[in-house]
Amino acid sequence: MDRSAFDRLFDMTGRTVIVTGGTRGIGLALAEGYVLAGARVAVASRKADACERAAAHLRELGGEAIGIPTHLGEVDDLSALVDRTVAEFGGLDVLVNNAANPLAQPLEQMTVDGLTKSFDVNLRGPVFLVQAALPHLKASEHAAILNMVSIGAFIFAPMLAIYASMKAAMMSFTRSMAAELVHDGIRVNALAPGPVDTDMMRKNPQEAIDGMVSGTLMRRLATADEMVGSALLLTSDAGSYMTGQVIMVDGGGTPR
User: Which family would the database say this protein is a member of (predicted)?
Assistant: First the structure.
């Protein structure tokens, strides 16, 4: 490998990335990382004002960015997100399925509406967003899909059965997508964060947060920025021989 090839490993210059749930937390950190790596980024979330604020912030970092209001639970929004991104930037190279609904219901109190809402946003939306993006990803020479799952997909998850099961299903879809799309030159991988210091995490009772922290070897929450390196690995040329994989970024908390 020469210097030129090395410098291109994590370089996303000229590539277009969609990040759902991209206006805060892990999604915004990933969007920042992609912009700083040279990519054009479309951030999507439900609120139009949040989308515009995030896009303006990304442009202040020196990147090309737009915000597109999108509800992952509304199937019609998915094609619109892809179409607007392609109309603005001319194509699509990377799709990051990060948006999620963290609904928690004890088994005895689980409702049909709760299960359906989680399914719509955490599983159905991401799967059909991939479908909508496929024609453009197939045309890319650097196509990659990153599905954000969770260590909840791997561990006992009291109170989180709905969320954890949807993430486990998304991990299964990741593997099936990887097998099905490999002949189209599209790599598909997943990233499974452990406990991360985000708005979503801070909505938990402190005792619950302490319990999650104590379950990690590193005994702390991650920062959202600590997800960026792994995401770039899985979606840049640095990960060109990786597909159908899931990387756990969990402070050493899961495989024990």
Answer: Belongs to the short-chain dehydrogenases/reductases (SDR) family.
Residue 163 annotated to the active site: yes
C-alpha gyration radius of the chain: 17
Report the Cα 90 to chain-centroid distance in Å: 22
What is the edge-to-edge ordering of all strands in the sheet holding 246-249? 65-69, 40-45, 16-20, 94-97, 144-148, 187-193, 246-249
Residue partners of 88: CB distance under 8 A and separation at least 6 = 42, 66
pLDDT digits (tens, 9 = 90+) for 71-91: 999 999 999 999 999 999 999
In this structure, the number of other CB atoms found within 10 A of the CB of residue 66 comes to: 20
Catalytic residue selected from 34, 89, 154, 163: 163
- Residue appearing with tokens 């159908």: 244
- Is the whole-model pTM more than 0.90? yes
Domains of the chain in start order, with CATH, are 3-249 (3.40.50.720)
Distance CA 49, CA 60 (A): 17
Distance from C-alpha of 98 to C-alpha of 148, rounded to nearest angstrom? 5
**Cα–Cα dist 230/243, whole Å:** 13
